[in-house]
Design goal:
The complex is a heterodimer of chains A (about 120) and B (about 280).
Chain A (H helix, E strand, L loop, with lengths): L1 E6 L17 E6 L4 E6 L9 H11 L4 E4 L4 H9 L3 E4 L5 H9 L17
Parallel strand pairs in A: 1-4, 4-5
Antiparallel strand pairs in A: 1-2, 2-3
Helix pairs in contact in A: 1-2
Chain B lengths: L4 E6 L7 H11 L3 E5 L17 E12 L9 H5 L5 E4 L2 E4 L9 H5 L5 E16 L2 E8 L7 H10 L6 E5 L6 H7 L4 E6 L3 H16 L4 E8 L5 H8 L4 E6 L2 H8 L9 H19 L1
Helix pairs in contact in B: 1-9, 4-5, 6-7
Classes of the chains: A alpha/beta (about 120), B alpha/beta (about 280).
Chain lengths: ~120, ~280
């Protein structure tokens, strides 16, 4: 099972990014072999549609679970269409959130915000 | 649209009196057309009243993917500068509200799998009030951008008017730029508050980007210190008209009346305002 988390810095002990679509990196963790990688988010500087492009990136990385503090409606539409499960993160580092997920202590993200897109 | 004088009325924030100034200017002008470009909340027709004589739909082309022809090559997704397409589980998904209707995905598709359909996003209504032809742009609730409605208003309005009054949307975003692009002159309506002066600066800077001559109408003035007036004096923005904060004016507005039909002094003020703008444009 591959798990994706938005990350501000390339550090497994770094914080979860507060913004899914415009985060700098995604932390992609594979719990079958405990390997991980950081992928750069090309969508971070998009003028618009960052959520769509970012979610596409995460789907392409074969993540089946996403852990994030919040999510915009367009990103959610992409992740839902790809049957990605979306969990809400808790305070703590990337690895601490992976552990919380494994321990069954994270809950599914219940609310989707309208996004920050605007003209 | 070929008109002698095109005046855009704008302001950095809502509620300053754009429609108040624009509707009264249109009434005082000869052979005028009034274009309500405040497509998210058009209300000029509350003052320039009349039954709807005509209505035109405004549609935008939207891509639709024929899944029988699509081979998931992903070229459309990678091409789209607005990230309006995604390829998920072997299906291309279109995000209508992000799409800018550029048609690029249709051109780039090697399989000719993308067709366009027309999606209705709003309409334009025509009314007539006394000397004024009144066009109202209306964006459907939930749509992201009314710029195409404004472009259609600007390009499809018949010619032969002496004066066009463009009632712009509030703010200084893309949609406001579309509304002032064709204007000969910009009237900036401002309130006597710090917030008002801040937003006046934003629209003033916008008119400078477009190199448009402009002047200010200071609305709801009360004789006290006025940050908008100070901004105008510091930045060489001519003050075209002062409209005082008066109970009778707000009563006229509340009942949907034009002040130029109710108050002789204000009627003369608006006539002088139009004359002043004509002179400024000819300079």
């Amino acid at each position: 099972m591959r798990i994706g988390i938005p990350a501000e810095v390339k550090d497994i002990n770094g914080p979860v990014s507060n913004n899914f679509g415009r985060t700098q990196y995604y932390f992609i963790y594979d719990d079958s072999n405990e390997n991980y990688e950081f992928i750069s988010n090309d969508a971070a500087n998009s003028q618009g549609g960052a959520g769509v492009k970012a979610a596409q990136l995460v789907v392409d990385s074969k993540a089946e679970i996403v852990i994030t503090p919040q999510l915009g409606e367009n990103a959610a539409a992409v992740l839902n269409a790809a049957n990605v499960q979306i969990y809400k993160c808790e305070d703590g580092t990337l690895m601490e959130n992976i552990k919380l997920l494994k321990d069954g202590r994270l809950t599914l993200l219940s609310s989707i915000h309208k996004g920050y897109h605007g003209h | 649209m070929d008109t002698n004088l095109k005046i855009a009325v704008l302001s950095g924030k809502g509620g300053t009196g754009k429609t108040f100034v624009a509707s009264n200017l249109a009434k005082i002008a000869n052979r005028a057309v009034y274009l309500d470009c405040d497509v998210e909340e058009p209300n000029g027709h509350l003052f320039l009243k009349g039954p709807v004589l005509e209505a035109f739909d405004v549609d935008l082309p939207m891509p639709e993917v024929n899944l029988d022809l699509c081979d998931n090559c992903r070229k459309c997704v990678d091409f789209c500068a607005f990230n309006a397409l995604a390829l998920i589980s072997g299906r291309v998904k279109v995000f209508d509200k992000i799409c800018h209707s550029c048609g690029g995905c249709k051109v780039i598709c090697p399989q000719n799998a993308i067709e366009e359909y027309n999606k209705n996003i709003g309409k334009i209504e025509r009314r007539h009030y006394d000397n004024v032809d009144v066009y109202t742009g209306i964006l459907n609730p939930g749509e992201e951008s009314g710029t195409s409605i404004i472009k259609k208003m600007m390009t499809t309005i018949p010619s032969g008017y002496e004066t066009a009054i463009i009632d712009s949307p509030p703010g200084s975003a893309c949609i406001v730029m579309d509304s002032i692009e064709d204007a000969d002159y910009c009237v900036l309506v401002a309130e006597p508050t710090t917030f008002g002066a801040h937003n006046l600066r934003m629209v003033h800077e916008l008119t400078k980007v477009f190199n448009k001559p402009c002047g200010a109408v200071l609305n709801k003035t009360n004789g006290e210190e006025d940050p908008s007036r100070i901004y105008c004096m510091d930045n060489n923005v001519p003050i075209l008209l002062d409209i005082p904060w008066r109970k009778d004016i707000s009563d006229y507005i509340a009942e949907g009346s034009l002040v130029v039909e109710k108050d002789k002094e204000l009627s003369e003020s608006f006539a002088a305002l139009l004359e002043r703008i004509s002179q400024e444009v000819q300079k």
